[in-house]
Amino acid sequence: MFKLGLIINPIAGIGGSVALKGSDGEGIAEQALALGATAKANQRAGLALELLLPYKDQMTIYCADHLMGENTAKSLGFTTEVIYQTSDPEHTTATDTENMVEALLAENVDMLVFAGGDGTARNVCKVVGDTFPVLGIPAGCKIHSGVYAVTPKAAGRVVEMMITNQLVTLTEADVMDIDESLFREGIVKAKRYGEMKIPAELRYVQAVKSGGKELDELVLQDIAAHVINEMEDELFVIGSGSTTAFLMEELALDNTLLGVDLVQQQALIASDVTEPQLWQALELAQKEKHKIKLVITLIGGQGHIFGRGNQQLSPRIIRAIGKENIFIIATKAKLTALASRPLITDTGDSALDVELSGYLPVITGYKDQVLYPVASPQ
Q1: SS3 of 188, please?
Q2: Are residues 137 and 26 in the same domain?
Q3: Percent of the residues in the chain that have a pLDDT greater than 70, as a whole number
Q4: Which pTM does this prediction carry?
């Protein structure tokens, strides 16, 4: 019988859709809920667990009560053992995560999976270190650590490999996190907090996020010139990232490096918008019969274009804009660094991820584009 340890951080990523850049910090979760955010960590954990349903008679899930694992596991019909009771099920804490890790280690589970972001990875690492196999289900706003699967379903695939006795090599991966208070001011300051042992199945486990400023400014200028040449009366939604930030610099506009801005007729009309604010802007643009374009880039080293730091671009936003109106911008060097791995969409909507899969054009210079594969969810 396979013993799977499960931890879900219920509030992981809750601030993403309302431009709060995460869930860390006192009162952030409450602020996010007041702004209309919804918790999605349990839903994302469920996507991973659904792939294990064919094996539910061969496994037991060891979990904490209520939203930290019990509700999702039981709703899917898994046999569960609740081994930790939270003091306040509606307001779980980092201490609950750390206590749960200790409880799972005492149960001698075969593997520990956890749904959260980099803060959750830090909590797990604080207890387990590099002594035990773990794997993260991505549910946070910021996923800089290399201990996460590329998507929730990919996490399920890795566990499936272990249940079915396939050979899975273990390796050590860095646990990284950034200061969210600085993150909310547009400053990325990452720090290494340790490493954990993970299954080294490279089709499913992401790389540590690459950092650093683009060096080839001439190429970036060409990319920016191509996009600016396309700007007329359309509403341009500018996603996060250093490559899109360069575009805004070329337009001489203020930029929210880690947020979403709105540009029309080469003028900034809104900064750091939330998902509801973006939806209202799209509705107004459609009412006024303006076309809408979305400009995004990929996360260096990982290849994610949706689902990492841009949760404001929700499934309904992406559908309203349309696949044909998405501009992906990146240097060829950034694409080459992916070593032929496809771009990844992790929108939280499986049907939309499939719709976005295939080959999409990537703007790599002035009037220069390449076709690059986007992965269908695993």
Answers
A1: coil
A2: yes
A3: 84
A4: 0.65
